[in-house]
Amino acid sequence: MFPRLPIVAGLVAALFPLSAHAQQVTETFDDIDTLANDGWVTSNQSSPVGSLSWFQGTTIAASGPFDAYNGAADAYIGVNYNSTGSSGTISNWLITPEITLGNGLQISFYTRTVSSPAYPDRLEVRMSTNGASVNAGSGAAAVGDFTSVLGTINPNLTTNGYPASWTLETFTVAGLPGPTQGRIAFRYYVTSAGSLGSNGDYIGIDQVTIGEAYCGNGATDAGEDCDDGNSSNNDSCLNTCVDASCGDAFVETGVEGCDDADVDDSDGCIECQVAYCGDGYVFAGFEDCDDGDNDDGDGCSADCEVEVEDTDVPVDTDVPVDTDVPEDTDVSADTDLPVDTDAPETDVPVDTDIPADTDVPADTDAVVDSENPPDTDEPVDSEGSDDTAGGGSGGSCGCTTGGPGGGMAIGLLAALVGRRRRR
After folding, report:
1. Is-above-0.70 flag for pTM?
2. Are residues 208 and 322 in the same domain?
3. CA 237, CA 363: separation in Å to the nearest integer?
4. How far is CA 412 from CA 88, 164, 355, 370, 402, in A?
5. Which residue range forms the structural domain that includes residue 341?
6. Residues 36 and 175 in one domain
7. Residue-level pLDDT at 114
8. What confidence tens digit (pLDDT) does each residue in 122-145 have?
């Protein structure tokens, strides 16, 4: 019964073929000496056959042209112009293990040539649907069972047709009537090659992945932004094969400080950077204000607190200047005093009426006459005969008109009484 198991397994595989995803091949070429045990085959069909076939990558430190795409510096497989003689055609094959082939199966890998290519290289990706066969024909022009070309890199052998840096290449199986067993082959195919030839230099292949298209296979398939082959959401490619971006709720290491999946600028994460005082956004519940600077005295302190009114003290210090105005207004208030001072001025005429009492002396008419310039030219005695008659030389005033005292008295009365009409 046990010998029948392979038959049963084959029947199951035919009726319910395993997905290419389940049978994917992943090879990073860390040690090409293990390839044969894993089902890989190399075959150099160059004409003439040269001194080298496929080899472990030569590092820059070992005077090689470049290091591996990832892993150790020599973790890639290389091939060069020494696949043939000094002049010839290179046809050097690297054949994968047997796999289940089906439409949509993808073959992805990284490849490159030297940094400044002067001798063009070319690589074909071919498929055989003949099960475990590794027949690549005989001679440089033969292809054996690998009749289907999935794609060619630099088919016209131009110096800029092959990538000069590690580049992801992807080819897809199509046109099959159904799932079948077979192999994929990488054919380094260069005409006019060799150490004296005009073509052929050095290429490397790294990180080969064969399987159905799916997110995480390391190849950017149709409908994917990216595919880095890992499940991390903290790098530039999410595990959903979408480019990382601010607002996706995942913190991209080395790029974002936070990511809260919103566009709210009042929380602790502003444009995927941790909020801080001075970022120009008010952190609700933690900041009163945020004017985007670290200055005090502008209404929002360097600690993002609203500066209270007592910060207007400088304005209050101006009060002495302002209080000058009240002092000035006091002056205007004092200027109201002229209203009061008008009273004394108006009282002066009232007080000047006091000379009316000076009318008591009957002889004051003489004084009035004495103020009359024409009359004062005459002797006082000529007009004051009544005075001398009544009182002798002193008159009724008790003084003589000719003496110095009489003159002074008359002058005083004149000042007090003022002008009077002559009789």
Report:
1. no
2. no
3. 133
4. 155, 132, 11, 12, 16
5. 318-349
6. yes
7. 98
8. 999 999 999 999 999 999 999 999
